[in-house]
Design goal:
This protein is α+β, with helices and mostly antiparallel strands. The protein has 7 helices and 9 strands; from the N terminus they run αββαααβββαβαββαβ. The chain has helices at residues 18-21, 40-47, 50-56, 64-80, 149-165, 179-187, 210-216, and strands at residues 24-26, 30-34, 85-90, 117-125, 132-140, 169-174, 191-192, 204-209, 221-223. A hairpin with a 3-residue loop joins β1 and β2 (30-34). It is globular, with a radius of gyration of 16 Å.
Length: 224
């Protein structure tokens, strides 16, 4: 599912908007803050890591200028649409030790703990050049793979999308070679989306619907 952060860098300055500041999300193990320019160094380090960039950017090393553009685009999305990208960090100091989510050998960061990934929403063209949809996406540091954090963060993002923003449907593109993305989508209750053909290279589309989500009542805590 969008382990790949397939997004174009839109260049330009940006500052955190009041709407973004109201979109801090909390889960059992994570705090999700809308990405800000203060996250720039951590995001550049994360997105240029060999295993992460292979999935996100076709193994290309993105520049600091491109990271600036991605952050600015997310801030504009929060201001206009009410959603964008969130930086993922541990929710409790106790998770910052060698066996937790943090890493004492990494440089300190704005929120006091190591960035462990990114999750969020973006507008994109639907299958076969269809109407514009909203896609969920995520990336995690490799040493955090297999810990259930992708599901935890994505569930918080879906809850915000449906219960706060009021979006009707969220889609995801599953790469044919990514069994882990398919497993995440299944745990989120996403189902095959039959409107449109499969994506490039045999990728398939899945979707979560607001009506189904509200019936399940998987809420999140949006902290002002």
């Amino acid at each position: 599912m969008s382990e790949p952060l397939r997004t174009s860098a839109v260049l330009g300055p940006g500052s955190e908007t009041p709407r973004a500041r109201n979109a801090v999300l909390r889960t059992g193990r994570l705090v999700l803050h809308p990405v800000a320019m203060s996250d720039h160094r951590a995001l550049h380090t994360h997105w240029t890591g060999p295993l992460v960039r292979r999935h996100l950017f076709g193994d290309q090393v993105i520049s600091p200028v491109q990271v600036t553009g991605i952050i600015a685009a997310s801030q504009r999305d929060f201001a206009i649409e009410g959603y964008g990208l969130w930086a993922l960090r541990p929710s409790a100091p106790g998770l910052s030790g060698p066996h937790g989510l943090g890493d004492p050998h990494r440089l300190s960061e704005p929120h006091g703990t190591r960035l462990v990934g990114v999750a969020g929403l973006r507008r994109h063209d639907g299958p076969a050049g269809g109407a514009v949809d909203v896609e969920i996406l995520y990336s995690l540091e490799p040493d955090r793979w297999g810990q259930g954090l992708a599901v935890e963060a994505s569930r918080a993002v879906l809850g915000y999308a449906f219960e706060v923003v009021g979006l009707r449907r969220i889609t995801a593109e599953i790469d044919v070679s990514s069994a882990s993305s398919a497993a995440v989508a299944e745990q989120l209750g996403m189902r095959p989306w039959h409107e449109g053909s499969d994506g490039p290279d045999g990728a398939s589309y899945v979707a979560a619907e607001r009506t189904h989500w509200l019936r399940s009542r998987r809420g999140i805590d949006a902290v002002p």
